[in-house]
Amino acid sequence: MLMINEAFHTLYTGVATKEDIDAGMKLGTNHPMGPLELADFIGLDVCLSIMKVLHNPAKRGQPSARL
User: Fold this and answer.
1) Is the pLDDT of residue 66 over 70?
2) Quick one: how far is CA 53 from the chain centroid?
3) Nearest-angstrom CA–CA distance, 50 and 61
4) CA 63 to CA 32: how far, in whole Å?
5) How far apart are CA 6 and CA 36, in angstroms?
6) pLDDT, tens digit (0-9, with 9 covering 90-100), for 11-61
7) Under the GO molecular function aspect, what terms does this record hold (predicted)?
8) Exposed/middle/buried for residue 53 (C-beta within 10 Å: 0-12, 13-18, 19+)
9) What is the pTM of this model?
10) Alpha-carbon distance 38 to 54, whole Å?
11) How far is residue 18's CA from residue 20's CA, in Å, rounded to a whole number?
């Protein structure tokens, strides 16, 4: 789930496009789908709920504003 959050943060900050993020993860790690595709498949509402549970005060795991 943290990979999905980092992908949304990368998209939000403008470091890469949605297509580049998904292609990079598919080609670089041999995953069948990229993190943004996976988030769409799981459901953004489910991803956000999980990230809220994982959130801690040190801001590690804080849900991305884009999610």
Assistant:
1) yes
2) 15
3) 10
4) 24
5) 10
6) 999 999 999 999 999 999 999 999 999 999 999 999 999 988 887 666 665
7) oxidoreductase activity, acting on the CH-OH group of donors, NAD or NADP as acceptor
8) exposed
9) 0.79
10) 18
11) 6
